[in-house]
Amino acid sequence: MIWVKIALQNVLKHRLSTAVLIVIFAAAAFVLFWSCGFCNFVISLINDINRDSYGDITFITDYVETDKVKDLLRFPEIEKVVCEREISALFDNPENSTMSVMVELTPENRKRLLKYICPIEGRLPEKPDEIMITDFKQKGVYKIGDMMFATVTTPDKIINAMQYKVVGIAKSTGAKAIGYGFMVSRESMDMLLNSSDQVNLVYLFLKKEFRTEWSIRNLHTNIANNFSAHHIQVKNTWTIIEQKVKMSIFSQTMNGIKIIVLCIMFPLIGTVIAAAVWIYSFKRRKEIWTYISLGMKDSTITLTYTLEYWIVTAIGIVLGGSLGYVSSYVAKAANVWLTFSYSVTSQLYAQFGIVDALFMSIFFLVTVFIWIQIPLRRIFKAVPFSY
Question: Contact 187/181 with Cβ under 8 angstroms?
Fold first, then answer.
């Protein structure tokens, strides 16, 4: 305990060097917090977005009755069947016209997709004549308050149109074609298609024990055959397995970024700390040589200084980590988004947990321990001057 007491006394005694090192460690902890935290957040989005958006197995079909679909999907592996509508529409107003995808926001998918859809202007549509657009393709084309007509073909092959008012502009990760689409309420979709029981998008959530690759592929084949036998035309279909393979490159990239940051931080922090320790330890060489003259071993002096710098490091980590958490919540509250591609668009947010904090702490403590050895040993080996 005496070495801890000496270390604490030195931290308080050498205020200038302590303050400088705390600032250095706080800045480094802040950078590492955001580097790892944001990468973790993007990876979690990549891992979750496919299942949250389209379940484990997805079928895009011709229009078919909801009850008929659910009757054909009575498989024990299936936990939940979700039927929705996703259609192409012509959007037109006196200034602009475009073909795009329209999707419905239901009470069920609003909850699941909340972290992927976030209005940056206005709000989500509530009334049948309200619509929200995303800024992926519509940025600068439509604005809040614009009126437009959406023209579609109903399940009965009738051309139908409705007038909408733009009430929101959203950022999106690209889930459910929302990255380039228009969003309306379920009631609006019912009116536009003249039907509430015809769907063309079916996706299945499987029970946890059946989410293996073999189970998913086998069930997918059985359902596809079942649809074919009942003359339900499947326009497109996929499973979560293929989607994860497609998105794995982004997960690998994010993990690679974390490794690169650590590889850069280790020598960068190390050289800065070593230089700072050398400067301040050189100024304190009388103190070190006094310890030596009193018979203290080099290892004991090193332990004392290591404890001192570890205390300073811990203060810097707490300060930098706290600044990181505060800035992360501020960025989330400010609704700041970053776009890497259509597939990966995310809020600026750091997902940093207890395990990450422990890893960061160990990383800094080990880095400090390694890099302070060189300057301290040089002082130990130097010839003391007379005083």
Answer: no
Checking 213-219 for CB contacts under 8 A at 24+ apart, the result is: 213/241, 215/77, 216/56, 216/57, 216/240, 216/241, 217/241, 219/57, 219/75, 219/77, 219/78
Q: What are the sequence ranges of the domains in the chain? A: 2-48+247-381, 57-210
List all residues 6 or more positions away from 39 whose beta carbon is below 8 Å from its beta carbon.
254, 255, 257, 258
Cα separations (Å) of 219 from 54, 225, 277, 280?
A: 16, 10, 63, 68
The conformation of residue 323, written as its DSSP 8-state character, comes to H
**5-32 pLDDT tens trace:** 777 777 777 778 788 888 988 999 999 9
- Return the ∠ at Cα 296 (arms to 294 and 301), rounded to 5°: 125
Place of tokens 């590889």: 263
Task: Name 198's Cβ contacts closer than 8 Å, sequence gap at least 6.
Answer: 63, 64, 65, 66, 85, 155
Query: pLDDT at residue 177 above 70?
Result: no
Between CA 73 and CA 258 the distance in angstroms is: 43
| Rounded CA separation 7/13 (Å) | 10
What is the separation of C-alpha 70 from the centre of its chain, rounded to a whole number of angstroms? Answer: 34
Query: Is residue 349 packed enough to be buried (19+ CB in 10 Å), middle (13-18) or exposed (0-12)?
Result: buried
- Residue 42 C-alpha from the chain's centroid: 3
pTM attached to this predicted model = 0.76
CB atoms within 10 A of CB 34: 21
Q: Look at the block and give the residue holding tokens 């929705």.
A: 84
Name the maximum alpha-carbon separation found in the chain.
Answer: 102
